[in-house]
Amino acid sequence: MLKAREAVRNLPTYHPPLSGRDGLRLDFNENTAGCSPRVLARLREVTAEEIARYPERGPVEAVVADYFGLEASELLLTNGVDEAIHLLCETFLEPGDEAIIVVPTFAMYAISAAATGARVIAVPTEAEFQFPLDGVLSQVTSKTRLIAIANPNNPTGAVAANEDLLRIAREVPQAAILIDEAYFEFYGKTLLGQWRNLPNLFVARTFSKAYGLAGLRIGVLAGDAAHIAMVNRVSSPYNVNGVALACLPTALADEEYVRTYVGQVRFGRGLLQQEFGRWGIRYWPSEANFVLASFGPAKGAFIQGMRERGILVRDRSADHGCEGCVRITLGTADHTDRLLRALRETLIEIGAKETTAK
């Protein structure tokens, strides 16, 4: 009988909540305003001939490389960061190898690594979700071939210091070190280009968050040119669709749109954290476009109360160390106003008490 590989049969599954989701989507870390109007205009200009052709990734990779200040040979456009993770695992992991992740974090690191037959080693964060540098280094062995770190991390919003990440790359030269900068625009610190000194370092970026292109599925994996060439060998030549490739240069060119949106998100993030403080709700300071907060036993009632007021938030209780926790995405100023009104009403409804004056 035909059977899937054992590694695949034993994989955990990733099931994002997709059905029954009417309301303001503050549960998926998307851009709540959508993409730039200039991107929509470019979409309307896409011709039948463009759709009929196989997409050419190279010219757009040159545009992206120029935007990032890199050589085109140092990056690969991918079908979102998900594919970047998958390709890195397929390139560098074999059965019996070891991959290190820090938990809680994005589920696809473990899933993609385990699918190769590699052993996934989960290192818990330190107190208050701080990055466990010593914990990561203590788990390194001769079999370590991948270390994947989200910076800022999802779902906590916490960050690791760049010098700590560079130290890992320096001390574990036999492993691919992936720094997932999906939330870079809301944080502002990057390791782009550091592979010129540490060739085992890779950086992933997405255009799903700040740029509002999640539906087009486009991201980028950047690193040492020789290693990127190896990753490219396992990539499909047409992995990024033509519509996404047509729109990405326009999205990059509209810097003011992204700058304005990111500014609103950062301001709203501060307001939400202040609001949690007023109500005595435990939260973790975030450098991403979301905030994680603990509602304990009242988590279910809080999520339901927010849904009844048209606001969707994400239950993260299944993540390591996140029991009773909810993650809330920030968006435009108007959306933050809606969020805070619903938040206050829901907190009163579930019996919370303000601890400080406004």
Query: Biggest sheet, open or closed, and with what strands and sense?
Result: 7 strands, mixed
Domain tally: 2
Instruction: Tell me the Rg in angstroms.
Output: 21 Å
Q: Uncertain segments of ≥5 residues (pLDDT<50)?
A: none
DSSP strand tally: 13
Termini Cα gap: 66 Å
Number of helices: 13
Approximate helicity band: 25-40%
Q: How would you describe the shape? A: globular
The H-and-E topology, N to C, reads as HEHHHEHEHEHEHEEEHHHEEHEEEH
Q: Tell me which CATH architecture of the largest domain applies here.
A: 3-Layer(aba) Sandwich
The secondary-structure class comes to alpha/beta
Instruction: Kindly report the average pLDDT value.
Output: 96
Q: Which CATH class of the largest domain applies here?
A: Alpha Beta
Looking across the biggest beta sheet, what order are the strands in?
2-8-7-6-5-3-4
Describe this protein's structure.
- This protein is of the alpha/beta class and 358 residues long.
- It has two domains: 14-30 and 256-349, Alpha-Beta Complex (Aspartate Aminotransferase, domain 1); 37-253, Type I PLP-dependent aspartate aminotransferase-like (Major domain) (Aspartate Aminotransferase, domain 2), CATH 3.40.640.10.
- The chain is 39% helix and 16% strand.
- It is built from 13 helices and 13 strands.
- The chain has helices at 6-9, 37-45, 48-52, 58-68, 80-92, 108-115, 133-138, 162-171, 225-233, 242-253, 255-278, 299-308, 333-349; strands at residues 24-25, 75-78, 98-103, 119-124, 144-150, 176-180, 201-206, 219-223, 282-284, 290-294, 311-312, 314-315, 325-329.
- The strands form three sheets. The chain has a seven-stranded mixed beta sheet, sandwiched between helices.
- Strand 5 (144-150), helix 8 (162-171) and strand 6 (176-180) form a beta-alpha-beta unit.
- It is globular.
- The termini are far apart.
